[in-house]
């Protein structure tokens, strides 16, 4: 393992430079504890089973192997079976979004957080919009960069991060990215972004080494954003005090 990341809830001076905030969607904007992604996971397995004529155990094993080897089950199905991505995404995201709880603290923090805000997801824009509507945060984001925008090349492929940067005119040195999967932060760090790992107990979120490419480790997104805002307000007050001397 490389040098350890900063395990903290507070913001440090390095975050003062951030002008673009990039957030993963599933199990990041909403808490993993609501188990929304469990529904998607079950529908992915069902789709693999039906499309390829497999038994449940064989379908589950193939689904997980494609996730490990291709970044998403979808990419594996496209590469090996010529699957139609639009039909797949429509099916797997046809779920009950009501388990996602409204998030007024998160909405308030995003409203106060200066800078552009973008959702970066391996899922679909339609799914992202439904999640954001449940959370009550949609108005605070300027864009969703989804798997279709990525030309179905999922995180953590570096080319997808480069496509995101180009499409939204992002300076990586002035960007921070939050994700619950460590390996998804590796390309971001290599491109110069500040990375934040939202720690999760979900098994798939442990894929990827936790090392120097992770700059901050957090346990709650709203708590962390509140700490960022408090640190910025303190810094601004101190700067104003010095200017008034």
Please tell me about this protein's structure.
This protein has two domains: 6-30 and 101-243, Rossmann fold (3-Layer(aba) Sandwich), CATH 3.40.50.1000; 36-92, DNA polymerase, domain 1. The chain contains nine helices and seven strands; from the N terminus they run E-E-H-H-H-H-H-E-H-E-H-E-H-E-E-H. The protein has helices at residues 36-52, 56-70, 73-81, 85-92, 104-112, 125-135, 158-167, 186-190, 221-243, and strands at residues 6-7, 20-23, 116-120, 143-145, 175-179, 194-198, 216-218. The chain has a seven-stranded parallel beta sheet, with helices on one face. The model has no long low-confidence stretch (mean pLDDT 90).
Uncertain regions spanning at least 5 consecutive residues: none
For the record, the count of structural domains works out to 2
The CATH superfamily name of the largest domain is HAD superfamily/HAD-like
Strand content: 5-15%
Overall shape: it is: elongated
Characterize the biggest β-sheet. Answer: 7 strands, parallel
The separation of the N and C termini measures: 48 Å
The CATH topology of the largest domain:
Rossmann fold
| CATH architectural label of the largest domain | 3-Layer(aba) Sandwich
Q: What's the oligomerization state?
A: single chain
Helix residue percentage? 40-55%
Q: Number of helical runs?
A: 9
Mean pLDDT over all positions: 90
Using only C-alpha atoms, the radius of gyration works out to 19 Å
Element order, helices and strands? EEHHHHHEHEHEHEEH
| Helical/strand content category | alpha/beta
Number of strands: 7
């Amino acid at each position: 393992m490389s040098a350890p990341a900063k395990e903290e809830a507070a913001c440090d001076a390095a975050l003062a430079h951030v002008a673009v905030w990039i957030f993963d969607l599933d199990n990041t904007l909403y808490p993993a504890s609501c188990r929304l992604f469990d529904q998607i996971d079950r529908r992915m397995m069902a789709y693999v089973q039906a499309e390829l004529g497999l038994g449940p155990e064989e379908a589950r094993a193939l689904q997980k192997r494609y996730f490990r080897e291709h970044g998403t089950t979808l990419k594996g199905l496209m590469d090996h079976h010529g699957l139609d991505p639009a039909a797949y995404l429509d099916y797997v995201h046809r779920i009950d979004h009501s388990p996602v709880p409204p998030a007024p603290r998160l909405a308030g923090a995003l409203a106060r957080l200066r800078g552009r805000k973008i959702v970066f997801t391996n899922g679909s824009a339609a799914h992202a919009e439904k999640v954001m509507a449940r959370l009550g945060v949609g108005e605070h984001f300027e864009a969703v960069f989804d798997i279709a925008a990525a030309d179905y090349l999922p995180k953590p492929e570096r080319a997808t991060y480069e496509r995101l940067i180009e499409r939204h005119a992002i300076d990586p040195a002035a960007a921070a990215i939050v994700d619950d999967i460590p390996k998804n932060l590796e390309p971001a760090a290599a491109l110069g972004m500040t990375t934040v790992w939202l720690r999760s107990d979900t098994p798939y979120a442990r894929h990827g080494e936790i090392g120097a490419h992770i700059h901050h480790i957090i346990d709650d997104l709203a708590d962390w954003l509140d700490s960022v805002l408090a640190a910025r307000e303190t810094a601004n007050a101190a700067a104003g005090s010095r200017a008034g001397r």
